[in-house]
Structure formats: structure tokens, C-alpha cells
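Title: [Solved] ABC transporter permease 3D structure

Original question kept below for reference.
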Amino acid sequence: MNLLENIREGLRSIAGNRLRTILTSLIIAIGITSLVGILTAIDGIQSSVDSSFAGLGANTFSIVARQDAFRRGGRVQRQDAPIDYFDAVQFKRRFPYGATISVSSVVAGAAQAKFGSKKTNPNIQLTGGDDNYLSVKGFTIQSGRNLTTNDLTGARNVAIIGSEVANTLFEKKLDPINQVIRVAGNQYKIIGVLAKKGGFSGGGDDRIILIPLDNGRALAGNQKLTFDITASVPTVADQDEAVDEARGTMRLVRRDQLGQPDSFEIERADELAKETGNITGYLRIGGFGIGFITLLGASIALLNIMLVSVTERTREIGIRKSLGATPQRIREQFLIEAIVICILGGIGGVVLGLGVGNLISSVVSQGKGSFVVPWTWMGLGLVVCISVGLFAGIYPAVRASKLDPIDALRYE
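Solution (posted by the thread starter after getting help):
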């Protein structure tokens, strides 16, 4: 009996026990679905995060004041003094490196906008910024225009609103441009509407209202504002040099003493992306571990089913041995059956995992993530299937090959 005939015999045996084959394949499919699904979801979420950072720009960095106390050398340090307007303006004026710099401040983090009888939830971020704010922060104007020099120098009551604010107040029935809304007790004429951003920011960037910086300062009154400085250098290659130059300039502006730590923090967009990549790397390890444990359980179930199959087919094994089948051919038949069952379950599991993983990714990223086809994880899933088939089939196959043909023929 040659190998080809043995393969045919194994396939005929599988076809003759369809219900058992389907149920066994489902066990394997569930294990592969958990493995491929988790890893696909992580890849999809990572893709969404990367897209969000790409919108911000990998060549962007921000200078901010730490507002929480932090521990250094076993001692709790005081929080940084806020970056005031003088610090921000002086830095923008003295920074020698060629970069696009934006100065902004959050005037109110929980404002409410009103238009006629319509009003938003009190979760609108009212921000004072300059004409570079939108480009540096990665916003796109859907309609209208950006802030101009006249708007900024005159501190005019004009505003650019996020897509969620526009949808809430105007419900796509009225063009928001040139309409007047009321925010924080002041009236503002809408000059621009931002395109939907969403993604990694969780939708907060779509609930923004941007007004001229000096207008925001006047609106704050006696409230002490903290200003953020965001810079965008021409290329990513220039960022290291620009960050070092920015640190030196800001230390001069803030009068940080030599040998003392910075009284501010520089956040780089590419560092945030790298940190996120490291986190998803750990998630992949955890996901692989969970999938492996599930597959281990599936392989034990398959091992049990194959042992039952050997017991049921004892007389068949005795007949084949009496007709000249060698122990090697008997082992091959049962191994082939186990591997084919695993491959059938693996293909179903890969397809299900692909769909489930992308569905989870789409929900988490609010529909902003692209459809991910993780060829590496799909190939790994099929390799694992074959490995599981070998693991679960080797012992039953060896046990079947060692049966004595006379005792097997007597088995009832």
C-alpha cells in the first residue's frame, strides 16, 4: 500500500465520520480564531494609532509644563511652574531653528456652545491659538478659512469649530459659515469648520472651538492660563537637533539654573509612537499566550477524539495489518487524518479570526482603522494547526501501529 493510497484511505475515513470531523474541526477553529483574531485586532489598532500620529506629524514636538507631582531619586518634586504667555512668546521669538511654531492655550475644557435653541454638551474644548495651530496639530479645514493676521492682532470674535460641534448645532441642515454662536458668555462668528479627525484622540479633537489667542486671553480674565508650544520642523531628520536647540532656548527663557532639571517637558510625536508600538508588542505576546493556551486545550480534545477513533477501528486495523499494512502505513493514516482535520479547522479559524479581529479593531478605533490582512499571523496559524495535528495524532497513531493483528481481529 503506497502513501497516496494511504492518504485516500485517511480522507475516506474523515468523510465517513462527517459529524465528528466537523465538531473536531470546530474545536481547532475556535483556538485559531482566538489566536489570529487577537493578533489581527492588535495590528488593526496599531494601524489606527499610526495613522493618528501620521496626521499629527512625526516631525512635531511640544513643550509643556508637567502639572502633576513626580518622583525623582526617591523624592517627590514639585510640579513645573506653568508656561505663561511671556515664556511662549519669548521662545517663539528667540528660537533660532527653522520651524513652524504654534502657541496655544486651553481657555475652557468643559465649555458649552449654543446656537438658537440648540446647545452642545458641556464638553467642548475652547482653545485660543494662532494661525499655525491647525497645520501643526494636523487639522484639516473642511469649509471656510483659517485664522488670519487681522483676526489675531484685532482679537476678533471669530471661531473655527470641530465637526462634532457643527453637527450638533446645525444638524447638517444649515451652513455653519458666518453663523453666530455663543460660548462662555461671548458671541463668535464662525469662519471655518474642521474635517472629522477622531481616531486615536477618541473624538476629543472634533469637540474643539478655536478662537484667536489674545481673544482667549481676554476671555480668561483673571484665570491663569498655561500655554503650550508646538513646533514642526521641516523633516524628521532635523528633529533631534531641533529638540536639543529648543531645550536650550527654553531653559534660557525659563531661567533654569545650570545643573538643575528642566522646568518643562518636551513631548516628541515619534517617541509617543514608539512607546505605543512597545505597548502593542507586549499585547501581542499576551495575545499569543492566550491563543496558545486555547490551542493547547483544543489539541488535548483532538488527542482524545483520535484515541476514541483508534479504539472504534481496532478490527479495521487488524484487517489492514493482516493484508500486509506495515506499522508505518498505519501511523501515516492516523497522522494524516489528524492533520487534515486540523487544517480544515485552521482555515475556518483563520477566516473567522480575520473577521473578528478587524471588527474589534474597527470598534476600538471608531471606524478609522483600515482593514488589516495579517499574512504573518495567518501563516503562523496554519503552521500551528499542522503542529497541533502532529502533537494530537502521534500518540494514537503509534498506539494503532503497535496493535497485534490477531488481538485486533478478535476485538468486539
